[in-house]
């Protein structure tokens, strides 16, 4: 408790330091931010091969990771695949895959603002929950509070991003200076207002947890690809073989 509040204070002071106007300098410009960046060994990458927005589906990579692409005409795309573990239920690992794109601005105070186009979505698998697999709209403006580009001795150019709370994302390495991105237009019918979905889902959760995912799936026209849990498949792949290329 004491430790975490001290940490929160430290974070607050760091954020304040970041709040001072800084100019884009050598810490950002060892190379341009434009291109495709990916964590680990680049198994999760933006562009075709990760997300198929038209039917709100994903191609499941073998390992978790994150990938950001930035284009010269100020568009971005993000591909993310992560596991969340729950200390009170260590066996219940939740898998989240998410995809979004939109427009970005490099602010003079050293932040990046990512404004989505509205067609982002994410799939959540929670093998322990009553509703174990659902897809939902994902449309959040994201603030990168700090970013740097430096050079790793073996991996080359390395992009570091800090999220809205000041937490670092996994370091990403430059895969290509030409961004690998899906078309920079809305790629999916967004039939529902995500806010109303959230409210409805909250209401349904209050009544009974089962049914919320059904709702999301129905609204997004999502079809269950198969009964097998991709979280379990992925965990088997990771822990069954080598865990060295995990992030
Ligand atoms: C930096 O500028 C952006 C855009 O004006 C703003 O959203 C953000 O809150 C600012 N961040 C800080 C730390 O001042
Ligand atoms: C760094 O890059 C930014 C964005 O591309 C550019 O506006 C800025 O002038 C560059 N600064 C230097 C010192 O090269
Ligand atoms: C962890 O699991 C407990 C019990 O199911 C739940 O109440 C709690 O919200 C979970 N925490 C997170 C961060 O998911
Ligand atoms: C997505 O978020 C952006 C930025 O807040 C907003 O302009 C846009 O209307 C949203 N789109 C949808 C479909 O909700
Ligand atoms: C989504 O579309 C892609 C490309 O047409 C196809 O390969 C995939 O099987 C579809 N997925 C689902 C869940 O319908």
UniProtKB/TrEMBL annotation:
It comes from the Eukaryota. InterPro entries: Rot1 (IPR019623). It holds the Pfam family Rot1. Keywords: Endoplasmic reticulum, Membrane, Signal, Transmembrane, Transmembrane helix. It is found in: Endoplasmic reticulum membrane. One of its GO terms (cellular component) is endoplasmic reticulum membrane. Residues 1-19 form the signal peptide. One of its GO terms (biological process) is 'de novo' protein folding. Belongs to the ROT1 family. This is Protein ROT1. It comes from Schizophyllum amplum.
